[in-house]
Amino acid sequence: MNNIQFTAPPLPHYIISGRDLIIPGHEHPSRRNLGVFDLLYVLEGTLYIAEEQRQYEVRQGQALILSPNLAHVTTKPCEVPTHYFWLHFQTTGAWQHVEQHDYRLPPANIDYAHISTMDMNPFTIELPIYATIKHPSHMFEAMEELSRLRALMHQQSTRWQQQLVFQEIVQQLANSVEREPRSQAAECAELAADYLRQHYQDNVTAKELGEYLNFHPVYIARCMKKHFGSSPMEYLHRYRVHQAKLLLLHTNHSIARIAEEVGFSQAAYFSTIFTKYEGLPPRAFRQSYR
DNA sequence: TACGTAGATTGAAGTACCAG
DNA sequence: CTGGTACTTCAATCTACGTA
To answer: Where in this chain does the record put each HTH araC/xylS-type domain (predicted)?
Structure first.
């Protein structure tokens, strides 16, 4: 498990942070059940820390996130003066340890039809447990800013500002996740999906898609099935139904007009497809929200 | 009046398999 | 990894009729 995956909303939130110096022969405190995430970012020197069975040497420019529910111990005292930032954060949402995955691909079997049209679409934030930060100067500035703001924490506006700066730090961490290169098949699948999303209002055919991508339609279908769990047409239908749901809720257009706007030339056929994915016809879907 | 459903038909898309 | 073929499946259309 290399990463921690947070489901948002809610976003992880900042609690408190600080800067510390450990002189040679001394060590970072060992703790268990801290109850919050503990982000360590080393400016100089090295921290020697183990969490459960995994040992880390956190060097200059590297970060380590300790989890709230795991015990972490120092494996040996610092050998040189070690300067680091620590930051406690937490989430009230779901999180889990995960192996890294290719963030550029949507999850397999993505089901657009079941994404609620009244709520914000949930997403995940994946942070590395242990990483070398790609832009150390940005990380340093953000951490310094948090240290400065700490003195002004009695002000409401400061506490808000702290959360904004913390989100920058989260972004820095997320950008430092090492990605595995995408396979050609994954590339093909994603390009095809892009094309379908851009042309869902048109009469898209597999042949056109093949000509656009310079791949055989059979091959494209195979790639999409493998990476999205859907054939191109099924992907297109799900996306069209998703768009139709938005129009049903936010406009008073007739079913026939909405069908046309999302790429169905026959309202009756649109209704059939909508019912297939939603479990109820378009009109019933609209009425259920009115 | 607008919309939903069902059945028949046809051509396009998907799948399995093989080859380069 | 990609393309091609043969076969199967299903999307799309049309129409008629029922329903809110």
So the answer is: 190-288
- Take residue A104 and report the two structure tokens written for it: 């550029």
For chain A, 290 residues long, give each residue's pLDDT as a single digit of tens: 688 989 888 899 999 999 999 999 888 888 888 889 999 999 999 999 999 888 999 999 999 999 998 888 988 899 999 999 999 999 999 998 887 554 333 443 344 334 444 555 678 888 999 999 988 999 999 999 999 998 888 888 899 999 999 999 999 999 887 765 666 777 788 888 888 888 888 777 777 788 777 788 788 888 887 777 777 888 888 888 888 887 887 777 778 778 878 888 777 788 888 887 777 778 777 777 66
Rounded CA-CA distance A32/A44 in Å is 25
Q: Name residue, tokens 């993505």.
A: A110
Nearest Cα to Cα of residue A91 among A213, A217, A4: A4
CA distances from A27 to A34, A47, A57, A146, A228 (A): 17, 8, 13, 24, 48
For A205 and C7, how far is CA from C1' in angstroms?
21
CA of A174 to C1' of B13 (A): 39
Nucleotide nearest to A263 (CA to C1'): C12
**What are the structural domains of chain A?**
3-174 (2.60.120.280), 184-287 (1.10.10.60)
**Nucleotides on strand C lying under 7 Å from protein C-beta:** 1-6, 11-16
Judge if the beta carbon of A234 is closer than 7 A to nucleic acid strand B: yes
CA distances for A65 relative to A70, A86, A130, A187, A228, angstroms: 11, 10, 7, 31, 31
Whose C1' is closest to the CA of A231: which nucleotide? B14
